[in-house]
Design brief:
The complex is a heterodimer of chains A (about 750) and B (about 110). Chain A has helices spanning about 5-30, 35-60, 75, 85-95, 115-125, 130-135, 145-170, 170-195, 200-230, 235-260, 265-300, 305-335, 340-355, 360-375, 410-415, 435-440, 475-520, 570-590, 595-605, 685, 695-705, 715-725; strands at about 380-385, 390-395, 405, 420-425, 445-450, 455-465, 530-540, 545-550, 560-565, 615-620, 625-635, 640, 645-650, 655, 670, 675-680, 735-745. Chain A is α+β, with helices and mostly antiparallel strands. Chain A has four domains: about 5-260, Rhopdopsin 7-helix transmembrane proteins (Up-down Bundle), CATH 1.20.1070; about 265-335, no CATH class; about 340-500, 2-Layer Sandwich (Beta-Lactamase), CATH 3.30.450; about 520-745, Phosphatase 2c, domain 1 (4-Layer Sandwich). In chain A, strand 5 and strand 6 (about 455-465) form a beta hairpin. Chain A is elongated, with a radius of gyration of 47 Å. Chain B is of the alpha/beta class and about 110 residues long. Chain B has a single domain, classed as Transcription Regulator spoIIAA (2-Layer Sandwich), CATH 3.30.750. In chain B, strand 2, helix 1 and strand 3 form a beta-alpha-beta unit. In chain B, helix 1 packs parallel to helix 2. The longest helix of chain B is centred in the middle third of the chain and has 16 residues, at about 55-70. In chain B, about 40% of the residues are buried. The chains are: A alpha+beta (about 750), B alpha/beta (about 110). The interface between A and B is medium-sized, with 25 and 18 residues.
Chain lengths: ~750, ~110
C-alpha cells in the first residue's frame, strides 16, 4: 500500500463513517418522521459507496491474480451505493416541501428504485456470463425431458445473452439514469424552494441545489462524458472527481439538513465527527509513523519490537482528549456556528433588542431568532394595542389580516395565569367559547409565551411546532423564558418611543394646522385712499379660535369680520375655519347683513353642538359715504372713538352664533368722520389678568385708545399689546388675542 | 370649582363656586347637569352668586344645558348673577335668552 492509497482509504472511511453515523442518528432521532427516514436512507446509500471503495482498496492487493478483484462479489456489491440516486429523488419529494403526504398510491414511489435494484442484480449475478452459460449447457437429447428442457435452455441462454449485451453498456446506461435522477431531484428541490416562505429553509435549499448541481456537473465531466465517448480516464483525474462529487453533493445535503433541520442531533453529529476524525488522524499517524519507525528499529536491532506500538498507544491515549477538544471547537466554529449554544443566541438577541425601537423590526428579530435557533416554524404575536384598548393578533405571513381579540376573551385569562412559557394544552380549561383559542388552533400553535410586565399582560407569543416536527425540550423552554423577558423590556421601550413619536407627529400636525390657519388670515389688511387698517392675531397655543378677515365688496366697500370661537386649540380652530368659509359664501349671496348673520347662525347651529358657539362681528365700510354698517353677534363691543375723544360701542346685532336656532339679528349704520377710528378686539385683550387677579378690562382699553387716538393704527395696535404685556406677562398668553384698528384718513373726502 | 346641589319644591338648584373655566373643573358642572337631566329633572336654577368668572367653555355648558332642557320641555334659570357675568351675558346677548333672578327663591317661585 503506498501513501496515496493510505490517504484514499482513510478518506473513504471517514466519509463513509460520517454518513453512516449521520444516517443512523437521523433515523433514530425520529423514526416516525418521513423526512428523517428518507434522509437516513439516502445518507446510508451515500455511505456505502466510500465504505465499499475503502474495503476495495484494502482487499485489492491481497486478492489472488487468477481471481481478478473486479469480478468478485464484494467489488460488485459496490453498485448498491447507486441506490443513493433514487433515494435522493425520494428526498427531493419530501424536502423542502413534502409532496408525498396526501398523495394517492404513495407506495408506487418505491418503483423508482427498480432500475438500480435491477442493476445490482445484473452486475452481481451476471458479471460472468460464460460461467452461467456453461451451467446451462446441459447435455441434450435424453428422451422426453429434452423436449421440455431444450427450448427452456435456449430461452435462458437468450436472456443471459441479452443481459450480457446490457452488461457491456451498463456503466454508460446507468450513469445516464443516475444523471437523470439527479437532474430531476434538483428540479423538484428548486420547485419546492419556490413554495416555501421560511427564509432559513430557503437558503438551505439553495445551498443544496448548488451542491447537488455542482456534484452532477463534476460527475458528468469526470465519469459520464468519458464513459459515453469511451475515453480512458486515469485514476488521478477520476478519484479527485469522485471525492469532489461526494463532498459537494452529499456534503451540501448533510450541511443543510444538519444545521437547520435536525438541530436536536447536532451534538450527536458533532461528537461523531470528532471521534471519526480523531480516530482517522491517529490511525493515519500510526500507519505513517509507527509502521516506518517500527521497521527502522527492527532493521536496526535485527528483531521485531513491540515497544513502539506500546509507546504509541500511550501517546495516543494522552493525545486523544486534547485532539478531541480542539476538533470539537474547530467543528463548532465552522460547521455548527454555535447554533446550539443558547448563551450565544441570547447574547446576540439582547444586543440587537436594545437598539431596536420600531415594533416591526422587533417582531422581525424575534421571529428570525426563534426560527434559526429553535427552528420554530411560525411565530404569532398577540399584543395589547393602546389605541384600540384591545388585544390584537398581529398579521403574519400566512394570515395577512389582524384579528382583534376581545379583552374579556377567556383564553387571555388563562394566559394571564402563566408565569413561564407553557404548552397550549395546559390551558384547556380556558378554551371554551374562546375565539382567540380558535384562531390559535387554526394556526396550529403549540407553545404560549406570556409577555408580562410588573402588573399587566402585554400580550403573548404563540409558537408552532419546530419545522423538523421535534418537540420543545426543557432547555428550549428555559431559553424562551429569558427571551420573553427581554422582549417585554424591548416592547416597553418601543412603546415609550412610539408615544414620543406620536407626540412629535401631533406637534408637527399642529404646526401644519397653524400654517393653514395663518394662510387663511389676510396677509395684509387692504389698502385704501380713505382708511388705514391695522390687523394682527396672536394665538395662545400654536393655533386658536380667533380669526379676522377682510372681504372686498362689489360696491367698493370693505367687508371685515372679527370672531372668537368658544374653546381653544384645534377644535376651536376647526370651527372658525368653517365659519370663515360660510361667511365668505353668504356674503357672496346677499347684501343684507342681518340676513347673512341669521344664515351663519343657522349653519353653525346645525353643524355643532350647543356647547360650541362663536362671537362674531361683521361690518362693511363704504368709503364713498364713510358709512359703517355692521351687526354684532355677541362679540365684545368694538369701540368707535371719534376724533374729539368721545366714544361709542358697536353693540347692535343679536345672540352669539351657533348656540340657538332661528335667531334674528339687527344691523346698524354709523357715520365716520376724518380721524375717527374703530377698535376691534377679542377677549384675549380684555381678559388679560395681572398678578393681583385684576383684569385688563374694557375701561383700560377705552382709556388707552382714546388717549392715543392721534397715532396711526399700527402704532395703536403695537402700543396696546405692549401695554397689555406689561400688565400680564404670562407667556404664552392665556387666550388668543386679535386686534383690528381702522382709522379714517385725514382729508378723505366724501365721495 | 366646587359644586353643591339640592332640590327645593321640585326644582334642582346647582351652586357652583369659583371659576367656571375649561378643563376638568368645567366637566364637573357638565356631568352633574346631564346626570340630573337624565334622571328626568326638568327644572333647574343655577346660583351664580359665588361664581367669580366664567369663560366661553363655562358659557357653553350653561347654553347646552338650557337647549337640552328646552327641547324636553324643561327650563334652566340663573340666579344671583354677578355684575361681571351679567355684562358677559349682555355683550353676548345671552341675557335675552336666559331668565335671570336676583335670588334663588325668586327663581324657584317663577316656575
Amino acid at each position: 500500500m503506498n501513501f496515496t492509497q493510505i490517504i484514499l482509504t482513510a478518506g473513504y472511511f471517514v466519509f463513509g463513517g460520517i454518513f453512516l453515523f449521520l444516517a443512523f442518528s437521523i433515523i433514530r432521532d425520529s423514526f416516525s418522521a418521513r423526512l428523517n427516514r428518507v434522509t437516513g436512507l439516502m445518507l446510508f446509500f451515500a455511505a456505502l459507496g466510500p465504505i465499499f471503495l475503502a474495503f476495495g482498496e484494502i482487499v485489492k492487493p491481497n486478492v489472488a491474480a487468477d481471481a481478478p478483484f473486479e469480478e468478485s462479489i464484494l467489488y460488485n456489491l459496490l453498485y448498491i451505493w447507486e441506490l443513493f440516486f433514487p433515494a435522493l429523488l425520494l428526498f427531493s419529494w419530501v424536502f423542502p416541501v413534502d409532496r408525498l403526504s396526501g398523495m394517492k398510491r404513495v407506495k408506487l414511489r418505491y418503483l423508482i428504485f427498480l432500475p438500480h435494484i435491477f442493476h445490482v442484480i445484473l452486475v452481481v449475478f451476471f458479471n460472468n456470463p460464460e460461467k452461467i452459460l456453461s451451467i446451462l449447457d446441459i447435455e441434450s437429447g435424453e428422451g422426453f425431458l429434452s423436449i421440455i428442457l431444450e427450448p427452456l435452455t435456449y430461452l435462458l441462454k437468450w436472456i443471459v445473452l441479452g443481459f450480457t449485451l446490457l452488461l457491456s453498456s451498463e456503466s454508460t446506461l446507468f450513469s445516464l439514469i443516475n444523471l437523470i435522477y439527479c437532474v430531476v431531484a434538483v428540479y423538484f428541490i428548486i420547485k419546492g424552494r419556490a413554495l416555501i416562505t421560511n427564509a432559513e429553509i430557503k437558503s438551505q435549499s439553495s445551498i443544496m441545489i448548488w451542491g447537488i448541481s455542482l456534484a452532477v456537473i463534476t460527475y458528468t465531466v469526470g465519469f459520464l462524458i468519458p464513459q459515453v465517448l469511451s475515453i480512458e480516464m486515469t485514476a488521478t483525474i477520476q478519484t479527485p472527481a469522485l471525492i469532489l462529487t461526494l463532498i459537494l453533493g452529499t456534503g451540501s445535503v448533510v450541511w443543510s439538513v444538519v444545521t437547520h433541520k435536525f438541530l436536536d442531533i447536532t451534538v450527536l453529529v458533532r461528537q461523531s465527527l470528532v471521534y471519526t476524525l480523531s480516530s482517522a488522524i491517529l490511525v493515519g499517524i500510526y500507519i505513517l509513523l509507527v509502521g516506518q519507525v517500527d521497521k527502522l528499529i527492527s532493521s536496526f536491532l535485527g528483531e521485531k519490537t513491540t515497544i513502539i506500538n506500546i509507546a504509541f498507544i500511550v501517546v495516543a491515549l494522552i493525545l486523544f482528549q486534547p485532539i478531541n477538544v480542539q476538533l470539537d471547537n474547530l467543528i463548532k466554529r465552522f460547521f455548527i456556528k454555535g447554533r446550539t449554544d443558547y448563551r450565544h443566541v441570547m447574547e446576540q438577541l439582547s444586543r440587537s433588542l436594545i437598539s431596536v425601537l420600531e415594533f416591526d423590526q422587533l417582531k422581525d428579530i424575534i421571529e428570525k431568532t426563534l426560527r434559526s435557533s429553535l427552528l420554530t416554524d411560525r411565530v404569532y404575536f398577540v399584543l395589547f394595542d393602546d389605541r384600540l384598548s384591545e388585544y390584537v393578533l398581529q398579521p403574519s405571513e400566512d394570515y395577512s389580516r389582524r384579528v382583534i381579540i376581545n379583552r374579556e376573551d377567556y383564553f387571555l385569562g388563562g394566559v394571564n395565569q402563566l408565569e413561564n412559557p407553557a404548552f397550549i394544552d395546559r390551558l384547556t380549561l380556558y378554551t371554551k367559547n374562546s375565539p382567540l383559542y380558535d384562531e390559535l388552533q387554526k394556526r396550529q400553535t403549540r407553545l404560549i409565551l406570556p409577555l408580562k410586565d410588573a402588573d399587566h399582560l402585554l400580550g403573548f407569543l404563540a409558537l408552532t411546532d419546530k419545522i423538523s416536527g421535534f418537540k420543545y425540550n426543557a432547555e428550549d423552554i428555559t431559553m424562551l423564558g429569558v427571551i420573553t423577558n427581554q422582549l417585554v423590556t424591548a416592547l416597553t421601550n418601543s412603546r415609550l418611543y412610539q408615544d414620543s413619536l406620536e407626540k412629535q407627529r401631533l406637534s408637527e400636525e399642529m404646526n401644519m394646522a397653524r400654517q393653514i390657519q395663518l394662510d387663511l388670515l389676510p396677509k395684509s389688511p387692504p389698502v385704501s385712499d380713505t382708511i388705514h387698517i391695522s390687523a394682527c392675531s396672536h394665538p395662545s397655543r400654536t393655533i386658536g379660535g380667533d380669526f379676522y378677515d377682510f372681504i372686498p365688496r362689489r360696491d367698493g366697500s370693505v367687508g371685515m369680520v372679527i370672531a372668537d370661537a368658544s374653546g381653544k386649540g384645534l377644535p376651536a380652530a376647526l370651527m372658525v375655519t368653517q365659519i370663515q368659509a360660510i361667511l365668505r359664501s353668504e356674503i357672496g349671496n346677499s347684501n343684507d347683513i342681518s340676513l347673512i348673520m341669521q344664515n351663519i347662525n343657522q349653519y353653525v347651529f346645525e353643524m355643532t353642538s350647543a356647547e360650541k358657539f362663536a362671537t362674531l362681528f361683521y361690518g362693511e365700510f363704504n368709503p364713498k359715504s364713510r358709512e359703517f354698517k355692521y351687526s354684532n353677534a355677541g362679540h365684545n363691543y368694538p369701540i368707535l372713538v371719534r376724533a374729539d375723544g368721545s366714544y361709542e360701542f358697536l353693540s347692535a346685532g343679536g345672540l352669539l352664533i351657533g348656540a340657538f336656532q332661528g335667531i334674528k339679528y339687527e344691523d346698524e349704520s354709523v357715520k365716520m368722520g376724518e380721524d375717527d377710528l374703530m377698535f376691534f378686539y377679542t377677549d384675549g385683550l380684555s381678559e388679560a389678568m395681572n398678578e393681583n387677579g385684576e383684569e385688563y378690562g374694557e375701561q383700560r382699553i377705552i382709556d388707552y385708545v382714546t388717549r392715543n387716538r392721534h397715532l396711526t393704527p399700527d402704532k395703536i395696535s403695537e402700543g396696546i399689546l405692549a401695554d397689555k404685556k406689561g400688565f400680564d406677562s404670562t407667556d404664552p398668553p392665556r387666550d388668543d388675542t386679535t386686534l383690528i384698528v381702522l382709522k379714517v384718513k385725514k382729508g378723505a373726502r366724501l365721495g | 370649582m366646587k359644586l353643591n346641589d339640592f332640590e327645593q319644591d321640585g326644582v334642582m338648584v346647582l351652586e357652583p363656586k369659583g371659576k367656571i373655566m375649561g378643563g376638568p373643573d368645567a366637566t364637573i358642572l357638565h356631568e352633574k347637569l346631564y346626570e340630573l337631566i337624565e334622571k328626568g329633572k326638568k327644572k333647574f336654577v343655577i346660583d351664580l352668586s359665588r361664581v367669580e368668572w366664567m369663560n366661553s367653555t363655562g358659557l357653553g355648558i350653561i347654553i347646552s344645558g338650557l337647549t337640552t332642557l328646552r327641547n324636553n320641555q324643561g327650563e334652566l334659570k340663573l340666579a344671583n348673577v354677578t355684575e361681571k357675568i351679567k355684562s358677559l351675558l349682555v355683550i353676548t346677548k345671552l341675557a335675552t335668552v336666559f331668565e335671570t333672578y336676583d335670588t334663588v327663591d325668586e327663581a324657584i317661585k317663577s316656575f
